[in-house]
Amino acid sequence: xxxxxEKVMDHFFNPRNVGTIEDADAIGEVGNAKCGDIxxxxxxxxxxxxxxxxxxxxxxxxxxxxxSMVTELIKGKTVDEALEVTNTEVAEALDGxxxxxxxxxxxxxxxxxxxxxxxxxxxxxxxx
Length: 128
Fold this sequence. Notes:
This protein is an alpha+beta fold. It has helices spanning 6-13, 61-74, 79-83, 87-93, 102-123, and strands at residues 26-32, 37-46, 49-58.
């Protein structure tokens, strides 16, 4: 795993917030067919604040690390604040990613947006 920062390695070997939330208020799933990475994100939201967030990622080390980091960045934030987190912020929080792996941070950002979209649909009484 040459070319990865210590933070990327730490989040890969010791990912935070791994797992599922049984009674999640929001579930988002995104994938990248080109590289085969799949991220699924679960959120527990109370009074518009993300009180818990978990993820399951099937993919490379950078995909696991970006999933882990994005959960750290959005936990405790409002839904609107979480929507503002960008893939660049995720990569910067990990002290950078190799250019060939930047798509992993895009996937992390998309997983957050997908889960929040699911939450908002449920709030509006829409079915998936």
